[in-house]
Amino acid sequence: MILPPPPEERVPQGRKHLSADALLELLRRRFEKIPDHRGRKCPISLADALMSAFAMFFLKDPSLLAFEERRNDENLRNLFRIAHVPSDTQMREILDPVEPRQLRPLFDAVFRQLQRGKALEPFVFHQGCYLLSLDGTGYFSSSSIHCDSCLEKVNKQTGEITYQHQMLAAVLMHPDCREVVPLAPEPIEKQDGSEKNDCERNAAKRLLRQIRREHPHLKLIVVEDGLASNAPHIRELQNQNMRFILGAKPGDHPFLFDQVLAAFEADRVTTICWTEGEVLCEISFLNGVPLNESNQDLLVNWLQYGEYGPNGEERKWTWVTDLEISRQNARWLVRGGRCRWKIENETFNTLKNQGYHFEHNYGHGEKNLSVVFAMLMMLAFLVDQVQQLCCPLFQAVWKKEGSKRALWESLRSHFRHFTFQSMRHLQQVMLYDLAKNIPAPTLDTR
Ligand SMILES: [Zn+2]
Q1: Mind listing the pLDDT tens digit for each residue in 246-305?
Q2: What spacing in Å lies between the alpha carbon of 75 and ligand 1's midpoint?
Q3: What three-state secondary structure class fits 182?
Q4: pTM value?
Q5: How far apart are CA 35 and CA 22, in angstroms?
Q6: What's the 234 CA to ligand 1 centre distance in angstroms?
Q7: Could you write out the DSSP letters of every residue in 401-434?
Q8: How far is the CA of 107 from the centre of ligand 1 (A)?
Q9: Distance from the CA of 92 to the center of ligand 1, in angstroms?
Q10: Minimal CA–CA distance to 298: which of 334, 266, 253, 251?
């Protein structure tokens, strides 16, 4: 049954081209541009199969089978413009050969809409630059199921092979924004023609180059953990015209920390202290130190933040950066370095624990299926983040439902029981509880 929408003047208004309906339409058009690897006209188009998988992640269905139960649901046509919904087997077969890189332009398309709507302005962090955090995460591990793109880990003692999938995510973030904006992730996988397992460093190199190709003028400060603070990687960042704030551990950088110690003794390190409650906070910094002994020409700026509790508790973070540190910006740069946790908390943990089923196996395939699914799930997460950031109607529904899990549950339940003309219609019905206004049927009591 079709429920009437509430009067328009009651509905929170937002930027139209950033609404769920506009974004779904945009994605649909982009999916249609991906060439069909089957090269002939098939009853179920590639765009339909891709949009169906996207809809499954958008609705947070727990399995392909759960999604398949929706095959005759009119809402899939009305809201996602899917003409023919594939069965679970068909979906796996059609999507397995899709090259994951063909999905990159979809992330880009959503990003352009954000730029167009000036929605990224709150993300500007320092000197017109955005913070871009990079981090890898695993989402699949098995001793039996595997495909061509699985990473293989061999147990040295038993010889047993573990098959894994990992991806390197890149998300735009800001210390004061709860939302994050994921760019297209890079699969960490075995590369064609190479038997050696790919590693996060190689994936980072590919990813940074792709980001630069896709966004030649985007001003970026890349934030990464201690693994990244090595000379080849820093030179790669410089080649891509990206600035950086990278974790740095004393154990990895004895030469650098010796230089800093000498500078402390010579009174050349600047220190800023303040207290927060009983905790003493302290920032120390030193500009223009060689990164290590063999790369003395590579100068970095050293930044450290420490918290010291009344009972001797101590926590310390250290970074190297190419941003000139001053008394004025040191605290702000520390916040930039520290907000790297957002990629773990706001991205991976949300995907793993807030209804997205990131580590669930929707089907592995023989070639790319597992990676294609992971990328489409990240794309659904991006659309959700855009709505959370820019769509007052979504924000109102989220607030009403109280949590993301409750929100997805209510979304699925409405989707299943009623027919809607648009996502906006659905969200309005959720917000104003319009489903509760259905008149009771007249019971035949004869
Ligand atoms: Zn695999």
Answers
A1: 999 999 999 999 999 999 999 999 999 999 999 999 999 999 999 999 999 999 999 999
A2: 32
A3: strand
A4: 0.92
A5: 23
A6: 31
A7: H-SHHHHHHHHHHHHHHSB-SSHHHHHHHHHTTG
A8: 23
A9: 13
A10: 253
